[in-house]
Specification:
- The protein has one domain.
- The relative contact order is 0.25.
- The radius of gyration is 13 Å and the shape is elongated.
- Helices cover about 25% and strands about 45% of the residues.
- The longest helix is centred in the middle third of the chain and has 21 residues.
- With about 80 residues, it is of the alpha+beta class.
């Protein structure tokens, strides 16, 4: 098990993960971030957003960025 920190950036708002979560590996942390991102995007759309740009950054305990999960969603007509 290793501790991974999943920081998020939604528009101009950045939220740092101060505690981290334990996962068996990076792929498990990435799958968790994908699920969390889907949830965040859905909540934003439910609240009326028509454009959502979300990035989730996965870092190890040393602060090294290991992966980025990105979502870009537009709702409406072109």
């Amino acid at each position: 098990m290793a501790t991974y920190f999943i920081h998020s950036s939604l528009g101009a708002q950045t939220i740092e993960d101060p505690e981290g979560l334990d996962f068996d590996g990076l792929e498990d942390a990435r799958q968790y971030a994908i699920g969390a991102g889907r949830h965040i995007v859905a909540e934003e759309i439910i609240e009326g957003a028509t454009s959502v740009d979300l990035q989730l950054y996965i870092e190890n305990e040393g602060g090294e960025r290991l992966a980025t999960v990105s979502f870009a969603v537009r709702v409406g007509h072109p």
